[in-house]
Design brief:
five-stranded antiparallel beta sheet, Uridine Diphospho-n-acetylenolpyruvylglucosamine Reductase, domain 2, 16 helices, 516 residues, 35% helix, globular, binds flavin-adenine dinucleotide
Length: 516
Amino acid sequence: MAEQNSTILPRGVPQQAFQDAVEKFRALLGEDSVLLRDEQLVSYRKIMMPKPEEEFAPSAALTATTVEHIQGIVAICNEYKIPIWTVSTGHNFGYGTAAPHDKGQVILDLKRMNKIIEVDPVMCTALIEPGVTYQQLVDYIQEKGYKLWVDPPAPSAIVGPVGNTLDRGVGYTPYSEHFLFSCGMEVVLANGDVLRTAMGGVKGANTWQVFKWGYGPYLDGLFTQSNFGVVTKMGLWLMPEPPVYKPFAIKYKKDEDIEALVEMFRPLSINGIIPNGVVLVGTLYEASATVRRSDYTTEAGATPKAIIQRIRDEHKIGAWTAYAALYGTKEQVDVNWKIVTDQVKASGIGEIVTEEQAGQEVAFKYRADLMRGNMTMTEFGLYNWRGGGGSMWFAPVAQARGSETLKQVQLATEILNQYGLDYVGEFIVGQRAMHHIIDVLYDRTDLDERKRAHDCFATLLDEFAKQGYAVYRVNNVYMDRVAEIYGPEQRRINQMLKRALDPNGIFAPGKSGITV
Ligand SMILES: Cc1cc2nc3c(=O)[nH]c(=O)nc-3n(C[C@H](O)[C@H](O)[C@H](O)COP(=O)(O)OP(=O)(O)OC[C@H]3O[C@@H](n4cnc5c(N)ncnc54)[C@H](O)[C@@H]3O)c2cc1C
């Protein structure tokens, strides 16, 4: 019989009660699905956050494969007041990985619950379980010979649509806003009910994956970035493969060019001429696909401007590189290509690079892969920039206006440099809003740097909040702080919902700053 990792218990749960619950979990799931020993929990303890691993160590992990398993787990958790932290594929890198919000919470790992229930090639929809990865979905679609694309985030193959959508993640094809392209959920609630949202409640309906709204209040949003239930199935829309796909880059030399280029791209995005999430990549983010900081300096602290300029010159990287793509019939793409190239020429700045011109350029290749939903791992190069395994995404939302860009970049760079770290950032323009994505990269093994990274992130949150900016998503350490920024009314209503839906607080206490 597996021994319990005896030192760690969920908060407020006595040892005996925990052991009794563990016996019930074993009876329900089988011995192999209740993980307790340190070596079984190693993967859940790997974090990139600027705190000791112990602060997020789970007491146990459970793997479930059926809805009935989850209902059973929920009943036991309610009986013993045991908090569970649900993950689907568990690769929320830079946002907490698979670690729970608090030490001792039990991980509910759904990666083995990985059935593709249906892919409909006519309606271009899928219904999947939480453990399904993008790679699995692509393999299935190819096996069936369907002409459909998926829309992965940058870690693509190893992560999954359910976890990514529930954390309101983004990709790079025209279906990049994942929650927008999800349709219908099945959720196990804390009272054991199995809720099917929207059309899923209608007996015999075949519209669950095609009509999002159903009747009455729209509930799906309640189960994203929240702790109100465990999602066990999700519908999503798949993009029909277009006859022509034309990715391109535009390289801009000067830092200030970003203002003009956002002004140029916003109308193209809102008008649907460029239908995908346009990414405007800063120098070091772009460089990280092939360059390490240690190639240039081993000095601690922020990378000097002169080195950043050398990297630009030696690797022919712009101050900003815009990546976008056109999709459609040849005629549509030709017309839109003319519109785009005319605008770039008229702007007087920016050098267009086509796929043919880019050849084997690593950064272009992986961006082109992402914008058509191919699997690629190149973006993990970010972790080689500084090394040491520390990463936190700082992702404030901005209006898609040129005047917002330099202001945010300058503020972020100033704060990061003050703490000896680099601005490694990009903007993703989705019509009216931009996600400004900054990877706060630091060496986790250097305790001084770890402390600086921690304080730096807190300062970023506070200083951006003073200017009216807030992040769209954050790692476990700062969830409370971000909830504060969104104001007391939102906190109160989230707490009211939590008390109504999960009175014992068994689901992910602390997620998005929400507790009973
Ligand atoms: C180099 C790099 C690039 C990245 N680029 C992107 C990017 O382009 N876009 C992007 O969005 N992210 C990006 N990420 C962040 C992250 O890796 C992805 O968002 C990833 O998809 C999240 O992990 P996952 O899919 O395994 O989700 P999970 O870790 O399984 O889930 C994420 C969270 O959702 C909740 N959750 C999961 N499953 C359930 C469930 N069944 N019921 C209730 N709640 C649940 C939990 O809070 C969980 O912590 C990147 C990371 C790296 C390292």
